Structures are given as C-alpha cells and as structure tokens.
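User: I'm new to structure prediction. If I give you an amino acid sequence, what do you actually give back? Let's try with this one:
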Amino acid sequence: MKKMLMVIMVIMGLLLTACGNEKKEEKVEDNGLKIGLVLSTGGLGDKSFNDSAYRGLTMAEKELGVKIKYVEPANVSEFDPFLRQFAEANYDLIIGIGFQMRDSIVKVAKEYPNKHFLMVDEPIDMPNIISATFNEPEGSFVAGALAGMMTKTNTIGFIGGMEVPLIKRFGDGFMAGAKYIDPEITTFETYVGGNSPFNDPARGKEMALSMIDSSADIIYHAAAGSGMGVFEAAKERDIYAVGVDSNQDGVIPGTVLTSMLKKVDNAVFTIIKETKEEGFRSRQKVFNLANGGVGITDLEYTKDKIGEDRLKRLDQ
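Assistant: Good question. You get back a string of structure tokens that encode the predicted 3D arrangement of the chain. For your 316 residues, that looks like this:
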C-alpha cells in the first residue's frame, strides 16, 4: 500500500491539506454536551453517508455520554429550519451532512455567531464552523486499481448521484486507479440527476443495466440510495459492483467487490470527542488514506475470488 499511496499522490495531484488556520479555542461547558445532527436528504437506511454519520453520533452518545438528537429532512428546503431549531435550543454542536447543506450551514452560522457548527463534506472558513472533508480520490483510486485487476471485459463504469465537483472526485479517482493498472481500460461515467439523485434506485438500476449492455463488468457508484439499484443490476447480470462511504460488501455478498470507505462515522465521532475534551476550535480537518479517513474494506466476501497475487499487488 505504501507504493500505491506514493503513486496516488503523484497521479492524482488532489491530496487535500488542512489550512492550518485554527481559531481560538472556546471551552464548552460539559454538563451533558448536546449534539444535533441534520442528515442529508434520503435519511437513514441509505446504507451509505447518512447511516455512517448516524453511527458516529450514536458512538459518541455511548462512549462519551453526550446527548444527541437527529432529524431527517425530506428535501433541501428543510435544512435551514432544522439548523435553526438546534441553534434556538442551545445545542453545543450542530452537525450538517453533505455538500448540499453548505449554503444553509453558512447562512445559519452567520445568524447565530455564538453557536458552533460542524460541516461534513465541504470546506468552510468561518470562526464558528469546523469543516470535515475527505480525500475521496485516494480511496477511490485503490478501489479502481482493484477493478482494473478484476475486469474481464476491460470495461468499467461509474454512476454518481449528481454531476458536481465533489461527486466527480469519486469517479476521477476510480478511473485513474483502473488506468494505473491498464491504461487501455474503457471507462463509462454517468449521473442519476433528477429530483431524487441520491434516492432513486430504479434510475440507478436502469443506468447500470445500460452500462452492462455496453460491456462494463464492474460498476462503482457514489449515489447513496440510488446505488442500491446498481447492486440489483450487478446481481441480475452477474457482474461486480463497488460500494461507497460505508461497508456495503454485505448488502449483496459476493456481488459487491469492495466498498470505498469514506469514514464519516470516524470523523463525526472524532470531532465530537475533540470538542468535548478540548473545547470548540474552528478548523478544516482533512481525512485521507494516510490517516485512515478513506480506504477500502477487508474484502470479506471476495478475497478468495481476488486471489493472493492481486491482493499482494494491491498492498504494494
């Protein structure tokens, strides 16, 4: 993996670095820290980003003794009012999940300058906001390298939820990893879009089937709930899919080759823990391959199919 990491850093050129502009520490009274979480649209049950954030929140409740509450917006118009509700209720740390919430976090943080916020997935430089971001291309590169070793048709695909820079980073890393293994690999890239880009499994399945008809035999998704349709298509047509954010290998064991882990649960837990122990410190914190913030699974269901030679190459 050391060799792979060096190659990633050279090829991708996308390694994020923390800005280092940490602000003055503000102590938080520990009389039962109150943490509010506003999930992204799609809510719990996506087996992906939201579920991972919720795991981090409940881990903090269990291990740190904080008081928690979470809400599930039906659509983006509910972001602002939910954030304001937590601010008005004097929550000590208010967490927003997903790039779609960026504008709402900025707006409400300006309205409540004495309240503290955590923005997961978007960098924001404000005195009352902590940003947690991830180097998705690094983890996706490793998943792509594995796909490059495993494809039989020399054709792979990527399905994202929305065609925005953040989601494209997943696909870019995946395709770069595959082409590191074989520059001649054919790649497809498409996006769910529509009114429910991250919660439309029927559309995800339709797009995956179209890619399979064009010879793709491994498809990576970064589309939250829409990715469940990708898995269904992969199972029906006997190809591999690659999961994202959480460990999705067990959703359809043997069909999901691996998952690119974007460890939102670790990020949420870590920042709650640091806030409880050290007080609030505005900063931008990056989670990457080197610090364990991204990576792939332990290949529980597919290790035997991959084989020792490929595993050794992946670990170089």
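You can read the tokens as a compact description of the fold. Here is one thing that stands out. The longest strand covers residues 256-262.
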